[in-house]
Design a protein that fits this description.
Helix 1 links the parallel strand 1 and strand 2. This protein has about 120 residues and is of the alpha/beta class. The radius of gyration is 13 Å and the shape is globular. The protein has a single domain, classed as Response regulator (Rossmann fold, 3-Layer(aba) Sandwich), CATH 3.40.50.2300. The longest helix is centred in the N-terminal third of the chain and has 13 residues.
């Protein structure tokens, strides 16, 4: 890992999503850490080494929105990208109000995630 390498955290209870997003992020030269729950992410001292969080919204325990709220309460300005398989009414508005950079619906194209990362991080 180089000094200037961005670190992306992936928080999702779905192992296949974590692995796929991890591979994509690594292909762009990003450092990646994965967590099966928001609680695991928080317990691992994310604050000092996190440049972007990609999180599922609906997970057992702490949801993606709960995680974003916690980050905000801790005065974190780390960009958050949320992903979900659900189509709940008003989800986009709720994500925007929470300060989420992007909301992607599963399944999503890798180019859509890269576009979100271009907004959150200088990856090129």
């Amino acid at each position: 890992m180089t000094e200037n390498q961005s670190v992306v955290m992936i928080v999702d209870d779905d192992d296949s999503i974590r692995k796929a997003v991890r591979r994509l992020m690594k292909s762009f030269g990003l450092a990646v850490e994965t967590f099966a729950s928001a609680e695991d992410f928080v317990a691992n001292g994310w604050k000092s080494w996190c440049d972007c969080v990609i999180t599922d919204i609906h997970m057992p325990g702490m949801s993606g929105f709960d995680l974003k709220r916690l980050l905000t309460l801790q005065d974190s300005n780390v960009p958050v990208i949320m992903i979900t398989a659900r189509n709940d009414p008003g989800l986009e508005a709720r994500a925007a109000a929470a300060g989420v950079i992007c909301l992607l619906r599963k399944p999503f194209e890798s180019t859509a995630l890269i576009d979100c990362l271009d907004t959150a991080l200088p990856i090129s």
